Amino acid sequence: MKSSVISDRNLFAPSEMSKIQMLKNDDLLDFISHFIQLMEPSSVFIVTDSQQDYEYVRRKAIELGEERSLSFLNHTYHFDNYYDQARDKENTKVLTTHGEKLPFINTADRNEAIKEIEGLMKGIMRGRTMLIGFFSLGPRESPLSIKGVQITDSYYVMHSEMILYRRDYDYFVKHPQATFLKFVHSQGEVDSRKVSKNLKERRVYFDLEGNTSLSVNTQYAGNTVGLKKLAFRITIANALREGWLSEHMFLMGVNGKGNRVSYFTGAFPSGCGKTSTCTIPSERLVGDDLVFIKNDNGIAKAINVESGVFGIIDGVNAVDDVTIWEAIHSDNEVIFSNVLVSEGKPYWNGMGTPIPDKGENHSGEWRRGNKDAEGKEITPSHKNARFTVSLDAFRTLDKRALEEKNGVPVKGIIYGGRDSDTWPPVCESLNWNHGVINKGASIESETTAASLGKTGVRTFNAMSIMEFLSVDLGKYLNNYLEFGSKLKSKPRIFAVNYFLSEGGKYLNEKTDKVVWLKWMEKRVHGEADAILTPIGYVPRFADLVQLFREMLGKEYTRGEYEKQFKVRISKLIQKDERIKEIYSGISTTPRDVIEELDAEIGRLREFSKKYGEEVSPFSLQEESI
Ligand code: SPV
Ligand code: MN
């Protein structure tokens, strides 16, 4: 198509004209032309890899009021509309053809949905500048990486992406045949506070066939930052087609004996300890949210897709989250979103210091006690308020692993949930299939609103991926099982649960998670025996005593161990039955899934005949591995 808009001197200033002329990729130029014609910006700015372009985008975000400066360092803050504080599940849709429906996924007809959203996008950038950014998901030179191009009219979105991803305009210059993912966003009309106004017309659509996401009338990063959760829907589908894994996981190195470092990935639903695990001060952070895992000569190798963190700030304090606290107070720039700002300083719930009674927050001018239109008291910061910062700001960053082109070998995969009364604090699966099915595909998370001691409402969240899934869950699991079957050396699979409680009290301290990590690290190297239970292997008491002493200087007691690791037979059977019911309702569920769940239920029933309702780990046999 190579449209004439690409050479329109009214749209492209001379500097931008020379940047676009460096790009010879027809698919790219068609893509850009199509959306210029549709959205009718009054100018176009091309974000290259230069420092100058970085500073320009950042400066414009501030000049136009999308971000404002804080009084310290070069930190800024941004607000989203009071009603635009999180991902919009209802209006997020995967586009399918021939009326195809997918279990658990909100779908829409491709042709109709594109017509609808392009209708909303028509002329939406009039009077505004279209920004075009070029990025790499994963290290620039990595064969595992995927490239992406973002079109947006939000300087805040582009600024966030420059912090969170590696820019890679040069790649597009050098590779006219490059294939890439396409992200198109417009914040739409904004009000005097510069927040998106037309939330009724907020839409986030995924055109998997076109490797494209389209998002409009929203600013919250989870709906707009293409490279993050928008790309994720597309890469999940591509991974399924090509036989690798695109996962909602952290990537971290756990320090072991001598100078050994063992890499683990971890999938946890939000609010279940994912970021706090991978930022433990004694270990190594590689990434906190998204990984690609590929089979490299029989070894599972992972890369972090991102180069920054878009993290929840609620509850982050100097004692429990030392590395995050340091990172957001370092001289690396930070964008705070939806926090309270008072006299040029950011404040958030649970930060551990007093919070002023007035300031500006996601609701506008704020005073303590203010209520919203629904009569609900407005908290100083939103529960989903966030910080955006480069990984370079973290003292514990494993820079070599982050930049490792071929990825780091995955020794273990950890699945976490939030569960008050069923899973033990840590457990190793019997093998790959058992781990994928009975741990990962069985993740449940109790609603955090559930009060301590009471059993919360459990939400099924396989692999903590359910909100992002863009393919049939049965086929997705089949790919996972097949991926493992082709590995020469399979990562061990573990499940953790930081939320076990009794009588309204958590059975573990926040800091205990380092002990479980160290135990898992020993297990993957065959250095710790374990106790075999129907749901997998749990630690021996003696090993935990030693690890608690070494890591936390704490005397771990027999009583604590027994409470935490007893096998809760009937709860476990109930859980397996719940999960089995879900998978039985999906026509594409691989046969192994039901078989593996049935086998575990069978083992648990046998056990209960022998031992009764609950079994102390002390009465079970040790197994050496
Ligand atoms: C999450 O909620 O899992 C996030 C933030 O990482 S979002 O970008 O909204 O997905
Ligand atoms: Mn996430």
Question: How does the SSE layout of this entry go?
Answer:
Elements (H helix, E strand, L loop, with lengths): L13 H8 L4 H14 L3 E5 L3 H13 L4 E2 L6 E3 L13 E5 L10 E3 H12 L7 E9 L8 E7 L2 H10 L1 E2 L1 H6 L6 E6 L16 E5 L4 E5 L4 H4 L1 H17 L2 E3 L2 E6 L5 E7 L6 H5 L5 E4 L3 E6 L2 E6 L3 E5 L9 H7 L5 E4 L2 E3 L2 E3 L10 E4 L2 E4 L18 E5 L8 H5 L4 E10 L8 E3 L3 H8 L4 E3 L11 E3 L12 H13 L6 E6 L3 E2 L2 E2 L6 H12 L5 E4 L2 E4 L1 H12 L5 H8 L1 E2 H16 L6 H21 L2 E2 L6 E2 L2
The structure holds sulfopyruvate and manganese (II) ion.
The site of manganese (II) ion (MN) has 2 residues, from loops.
Could you describe the 3D structure shown?
This protein is α+β, with helices and mostly antiparallel strands. The chain folds into 3 domains: 2-65 and 87-243, Phosphoenolpyruvate Carboxykinase, domain 1; 246-306 and 400-623, Phosphoenolpyruvate Carboxykinase, domain 3; 310-393, Phosphoenolpyruvate Carboxykinase, domain 2. The protein is built from 18 helices and 36 strands. Strands 1, 4, 5, 6, 7, 8, 9, 10 and 11 form a 9-stranded mixed beta sheet that branches. Strands 12, 13, 14, 15, 16, 17, 25, 26 and 29 form a 9-stranded mixed beta sheet that branches. Strand 20 and strand 21 form a beta hairpin. It is globular, with a radius of gyration of 25 Å. The N and C termini lie far apart (62 Å). Mean pLDDT is 96; it is low at 449-453.
